[in-house]
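Limitations

Structures in this collection are predictions, not experimental determinations, and the ligand pose is part of the prediction. Treat each record accordingly. The example that follows, with zinc ion as the small molecule, is included so readers can see exactly what is and is not provided: the inputs are given verbatim, and the output is the predicted complex.
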Amino acid sequence: MTSERKRAVGSRGVQETPTLAEALESLPEPTRPLKPLAPAFIPPGLWRSGADRSLLASAGWRRTRERILERDGHRCVYCDHHQGRGLEVNHISGNSRDDREHNLETVCALCHRVLHAGRSAAIYGSLLLFEQANVDQNTLQRLCWQFRSGPIRLPDRLLMALLGLAGPRPFRMDADDLAGLRGYVVERYYLLERRARPAPQRG
Ligand SMILES: [Zn+2]
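Predicted complex:
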C-alpha cells in the first residue's frame, strides 16, 4: 500500500482507511477455534440437480438446517460470523443428499462462496481468486465482515488493498492448486448471482 491513507466512509462520516495492524486489532476475539478455510469446489459428479434444489426448499431441510444452526451456536465455523442474516448450512462432503449431522456445518454467506469456488468464481464472478494476500483465508473473511458491517465501511477497492490481494488467477478445477489461493467475495456478490440465475421454469 502507498503511504497515502485512502478515505473510507464510516458511520461518523469520512474516515481514513485503517492500516492492516489497526484492522487486525479491531477484530473481535473468536469465541472458539476456527476451522481452517481454503478455496474449494464441489466435484462435478456431486453438482445439484433441479430435484436436489427443490429438496432444499422442503420443510424437512428447514428443520435440519435449524438444528445445525442451533448446534453451532448460530456462528460460522470458519470466521465466527454470527449475524442471523447471511448464515447458511454447508454440506461438508459436497454431497447435498447426505443430510447426516456430521456432514453439515454452519457457514456465513462469504465462507460458503469460498468453499464453492467453482460456482462463485467461474459461473457468477462473485468470487475473485489471488495468489497472494496479507492474511490467511479465515482472517480475510473476518476482515471482510468487519469492514462491511462494522462502523467503518470499505468498498471493494480499499478492502482489497488492505488485504494485500495480488496476482489474480482464473479458476481451475484443480483442488490442490485452488487450496493455495485466496478467495475474495465481492461486496455485491448477491447482485451478480441474481443476474446470472436463469428465470424459474414454469409448470
Ligand atoms: Zn464465515
